[in-house]
Specification:
11 helices, transmembrane, mainly alpha
Length: about 260
């Protein structure tokens, strides 16, 4: 039985049956998404891995004489940038492509919960972000001769950051027109790399921008990742975790709402 045929199975009426159908549908959608983008996924993995490595090495060239604190910011900031770029840039652009070619509308005709579409896409994009996260971290350690003290919770935090960023990207891609979505995603790259305290301290920013980042999720994401990788030098607060969780819940709700409205 093909993936498409399997997705078109009849609806179950009981709660347990619907739950099993949703889980099975999510797994089949993941399989379908991987097969559909099999030609491009390796290239995307290479691009986002190159971005992580370039962030570590490129900022070092701009700074010049990199001291220990700056080196830790660069090395621990690269994984966060990789996860956020995948979520806020690549995810919405893929959604725009699906809407343009019509595959997004076709998927909504399948007898599956709208949440299954979101879960399948977010799983694929989260998995795609992992190679760049790992390689960027290794390159940072080798280039600046630093040692990490990773916490046991760093992997769940990485998944939370990836899920949150991808949910935000998915939400505005589903709500905004395709052209606006592409412009917003491209603008976010510059805002993330140049005006977000990920690879440098927040103290370098003007006061009004520091105030903005207190309510935005990017700085809390970076704080959590830094504390998870280099707990000997950085720490994260409960407010950081709460802020990221709040953005994650709101973005997932917005994405599901958009999918149901369009469906």
């Amino acid at each position: 039985m093909s993936t498409i045929t399997a997705l078109q199975t009849p609806k179950h009426t009981s709660s347990a049956g619907r739950a099993m159908q949703g889980l099975r549908g999510t797994l089949l959608l993941i399989q379908w998404q991987v097969r559909r983008q099999a030609q491009f996924l390796p290239l995307m993995a290479v691009v986002q891995t190159a971005l992580a490595v370039s962030t570590v090495l490129g900022y070092g060239l701009l700074i010049g004489d990199v001291d220990q604190e700056a080196a830790l910011f660069l090395a621990t900031g690269a994984p966060t940038i990789t996860l956020i770029v995948i979520g806020l840039v690549m995810t919405p652009q893929a959604m725009v492509q699906a809407r343009t070619e019509g595959s997004a509308d076709w998927l909504r005709t399948l007898p599956l919960p709208r949440g299954a579409f979101l879960a399948a896409d977010l799983t694929v994009w989260t998995a795609l972000a992992l190679p760049g996260l790992v390689l960027g971290t290794i390159v940072g350690a080798l280039r600046y001769d630093i040692t990490y003290q990773p916490a046991a919770w760093v992997l769940p935090i990485a998944i939370l950051i990836s899920l949150t960023a991808a949910s935000i990207g998915y939400a505005f891609a589903a709500l905004l027109p395709p052209v606006i979505t592409q412009l917003v995603s491209q603008m976010l790259v510059f805002l993330l790399l140049l005006f977000s305290p990920v690879s440098f301290p927040a103290a370098n920013l003007p006061e009004w921008l520091r105030a903005a980042h207190e309510v935005l999720p990017i700085e809390p994401m970076a704080n959590l990742m830094r504390a998870g990788l280099a707990g000997q030098a950085f720490e994260a607060s409960g407010r950081d975790l709460f802020t990221v969780l709040a953005w994650c819940v709101a973005a997932v709700a917005a994405a599901v709402f958009a999918l149901r409205r369009r469906g």
